[in-house]
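Run log, item B.
One chain of 206 residues. Sequence copied directly from the ordering sheet:
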Amino acid sequence: GNSVIVAAIVVSCALVLSVLSGYAFGTMRFRGSTVLFYLFLLGLMIPAEATVIPLFFDLRSLGLTDTYLAIALPQIAQSVAFGTFWLRAQFRSMPESLMEAAALDGAGPVRALTGVLVPASIPALTTLTVLVFMWTWNEFLIALVMTPSGQRRTAPLGLANFQGQYTSEIALLSAGAVIVALPMVILFLFLQRHFIRGMLEGATKS
């Protein structure tokens, strides 16, 4: 239950924020955009191990440890860094005729994004959804550090605890691992067509 809630928070927030930032960097030209984009990319370069302890003290000072937000917020930041990079390339690769047609129809920036670019980017968005869900569902370190009481234990933490109790019960451990992995398998099976298409499109983007 905790993993589902955290994954829902991270995936939904990361998608919305990545679409908005990817749209800004991919279609708009403004002063300092290149520098700002590289600042976003720092989120891809700095490992969680380097920031998790300072983050813990910051979140503890705000009274957020042992909450869903303590687990979700760092992962949202990491996911938005990748999502911005991913969707910037997606939106930059879109034909200019799409935006021109939207402008001729009187569409403003928001309507062009929601009515034209997002529907045309479903494979890329599906790929991003699957990747962010997978990363969030499997996250161990952030969930471990940010919930010292164990009240918001996610699936990987639960499996590690289960493993500690039943080290000799191979059948039980295997069953637990399958249960933890099952949601990712189901999600991929439902979205595999769009996911594979999005990955192939991403491989050809400049």
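Observations after the first pass:
- The chain has one domain: 2-203.
- Residues 202-206 have pLDDT under 50 and may be disordered.
Flagged for discussion on Thursday.
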